[in-house]
Design a protein that fits this description.
Blueprint lengths: L1 E3 L20 E5 L7 E6 L1 E2 L5 E3 L5 E7 L6 E6 L11 E8 L5 E9 L4 E8 L5 E6 L18 E3 L2 E5 L3 E2 L6 E7 L7 E11 L2 H8 L21 H22 L23 E5 L2 E5 L5 E2 L1 E4 L9 E2 L21 E5 L14 E5 L1 H10 L19 H14 L4 E2 L5 H4 L6 E5 L7 E2 L9 E2 L4 H15 L8 E6 L12 H4 L1 H7 L6 H14 L2 H8 L7 H4 L14 H28 L4 E2 L9 H10 L3 E4 L11 H7 L3 E6 L22 H14 L3 E6 L30 H36 L1
Parallel strand pairs: 11-13, 20-24, 20-32, 25-28, 28-29, 30-31, 31-32
Antiparallel strand pairs: 1-3, 2-16, 3-7, 4-6, 5-6, 6-16, 7-15, 8-11, 8-16, 9-10, 9-15, 10-14, 12-13, 17-18, 18-19, 21-23, 22-23, 26-27
Helix pairs in contact: 2-3, 2-4, 6-12, 12-13, 15-16
Amino acid sequence: MIRTLPALFALLFAAPLLAAPAGQQTLFNFVRPADVVKVATQDASLPQYNAEQTPEGEVLRRITFNPAAEPSLVLSPQSGVWDWSQSSAMSLRIQSAMDWALTLYVKVQSSDGKTLVSRIDLPAGPAQTLLVPLQANSPLSQGMKAGPPMPITVDGQRVMLAGSAGELDRSQVVSVTLSMIQPAAPQSILLERFGVQDSEPVLKAAYSELVDAYGQSNRARWPEKVSSDEQLKVAAAKEQQQLKGWLAERDKAGLDKFGGWTKGPAFDASGFFRTEKRDGRWYLVTPLGHPFYSLGVNTVTPDNSQTYVAGREWMFGALPKAGEPFDKYYGSGDNRGGNGADVGRGFNVGRWYDFYGANLQRTYGQACDPAAQAQPCTAQGFDQARWVSHTLDRLQAWGFNTVGNWSALQLVGADRVPYTLPLSIIGDYTSISTGIDWWGGMPDPFDPRFAMATERAVAIATRDHRDDPWLIGFFADNELAWAGPGNDAKSRYALAYGTLRMTTDVPAKRAFLKQLRDKYRNEDGLSKAWGIQLAGWELMEDPGFEPPVPNPEHPEIEADFQYFQKTFADAYFKTISDALKWHAPNQLLLGGRYAVSTPEAVASCAQYCDVLSFNMYTLKPQDGYDFAALRGLDKPVLISEFNFGSTDRGPFWGGLTPLAREEARGPAYATFLKQAMAEPSIVGVHWFQYLDQPVTGRLLDGENGHFGLVGITDVPFQGFVDSVRKSNLAAIQQLGRKAEKAKVAQAATGSQSQ
């Protein structure tokens, strides 16, 4: 039921209103309304007499969103349209009337049906001026996944710059809708001025000098934040003493040189890592024949922390000039990939800077002695050997036993910590869109060029590692788009839909059509099975062919989709498995690092891979997949990525599993690992990642998350590291106890059989 409010409202307070910011055009005032804007509500209440004075002295009006599908407030012109072509943002003075943050949605629509949408995470506290850009704009437009914390203070007022997506004709605006999605109970906000203004000054204020000389955020303080080179050196010396003690404890822990539990049952020693199921539990087994639980860290490398500076130098407070110390850490790149991860991103090409490299030199570099040299000397830069030794000390002292994916090859050549490697299959083979395409389309395994690319990738990857006992195994690609972005049938079978939309020069489509022709013989058989009227078989060969949605009346549709997706996955994993068995027969194939998947893809991986691997960004593994279904496949499982982040240590993104504060990360890690150990099929978990991402976004895709063990300054987050270490050591002890039980059970079984 939509109710239109009277044109005029009574004013309860005579208190003066705060002046509007400079450059703002006020179209409507909720406290002192005039007959200039139509105001309507749906499943929301805006009584005539409810103006309120806040503790800060502002007078605002209350609107309450009632429990409903989408309660809303709609603002529209009294006649005609609004011409906002000279303005860059819609503005709204707003405050949460609750003691907690609220999630609101703003929709701006023009007369041509175009719509601009914005999600607003409105914090509790005083009022702020909300700005919604009238052209699609987000932190990604500025080159980073998440922007600086909001609100900010500009000219003495709290301002909240929102992101927006979509398209709008600014000269023909017909409505602004403010709504909530399914509130469980009545939720209230307070409103005052509604209008438009220029957002450029606020944008500059929000993003100017975000980053200090050490690569840290200038927008907050935290215990590990560095303010001087001396502080870096003191922290490094203190850490070194701590590592010595922890490593001495590790030497007494009863582990073989690979990190396997020496007090457990005796497995066959093959000289390489392998898997074995015993007493209902899956194990990784070290080359020496001991049970091993893989506790890994991904992206342990000094070469993944650069950030683009070209075109946005104004975001950095202290970049070195040419000839100044640390100018050697500039470089250039181009990350215009054209895939889903790059859509809408600005600042992805040109000059970059490596704050992490500069900080390593500040901390560990030795000043030169001009008197000892005939030629002018330069200070020592990055010391790779020192970094490798120190990093491996850290990993082992913190209870980790695996160098995870995308890590520096210098680490894996040290023969100290087992490691994994990626098989990144790149080539000119055909790819198929499933709608996500985050890292690109799905490779067509029916394309002969895919087999050639696989052979080349495997040959190169295994060349120096095929006989290395420290290698646990290889991953097959990473986060392929096996399914679409939603939960509907078209997403579930996006691979089948995407294939049929292609032209017949695509090998996967020819394979799919052959499957259907072999089954149904002609268009009449297919038409009957699918409930369609296919006038001619050749119509399926046309590009853009859209098959029907699976339905109970025609179960063959879903059966055909499933069969095709299984044969697709079979072709993909068999190609990789065959190549790996040829080039490195002793090494494990660790699965496809699923971020999205289908049952067909997982079943196929179970058939051709030694281990199933999943990237799970959930509070516990059991939230990420149906483990009952996995147990039916009877394969060991590796959690190849997980993490927990927060936004109170510098970088602005809390990751895919954000927590409210830093102190919650350690308990979340402990819970996740405990739950993983409780699942008999899981043989390891790998944390993503070693370092925090740059505040202004990594080169690859602009991600700027705080979920590292170590900051951009190379200073560990001590509280988190302490907690992680305790959890890791407890997990190894737990594995030992489980292995001891299996040993006793095995011995008992053996004595009974004699």
